[in-house]
Design goal:
This protein is α/β, with parallel strands linked by helices. The chain has one domain (13-141): NAD(P)-binding Rossmann-like Domain (Rossmann fold, 3-Layer(aba) Sandwich). It has 4 helices and 5 strands. A 5-stranded parallel β-sheet has the order 3-2-1-4-5, sandwiched between helices.
């Protein structure tokens, strides 16, 4: 059964984080096949596969530490990014063994991406829609005494 996927017409460049993971690899290949006019920036802690695509205007594969805001800013440098598919994260076993790493990757790196995306959106042209952010996650819910929330945020 074919996978149904649609993008807003304004989306010409997509940043995919976690592009070297299971879901990320599948999504990169799907987007390459379904959207030949869309440019992809694929990133992970190691350089993701390029699937034989040599044209960096079509698919740019980059290693980046998303916990480092400067590296996140570099991903947006020189391109208008209209969409982000955030697929990166540390899975439960590793994040439970190293809570600080899990929190940095699963929370703060996402905050970095959102912060830079918001700043990036400020420079969009008049009439250009806001960028799209899609968070795709199969991360486990945090537990234990270190994960007790201090407050709750309820969207209005």
């Amino acid at each position: 059964m074919p996978v149904e996927i649609a993008l807003p017409p304004a989306v010409k460049t997509i940043l995919l984080t976690g592009a070297g993971g299971f879901v990320g690899r599948e999504l990169v290949q799907l987007l390459l096949t379904r959207f030949p006019d869309v440019s992809l920036i694929a990133t992970d802690v190691g350089v993701p596969p390029n699937y034989g695509v040599e044209d960096e205007n079509r698919l740019k594969c980059v290693a980046a530490n998303l916990c480092d805001k400067k590296e996140v800013e570099q991903l947006f440098s020189g391109r208008r990014v209209q969409a982000v598919f955030a697929l990166h994260g540390i899975m439960s076993g590793q994040s439970e063994a190293d809570f600080e790493l899990g929190y940095n990757v699963n929370v703060f790196s996402h905050m970095n991406v959102l912060s830079v995306l918001a700043k990036h959106a400020e420079s969009r042209e008049e009439g250009e829609p806001l960028p799209v952010h899609v968070n795709v996650s199969s991360l486990a819910v945090y537990g234990g005494r270190k994960a007790t929330p201090n407050s709750r945020v309820v969207p209005e």
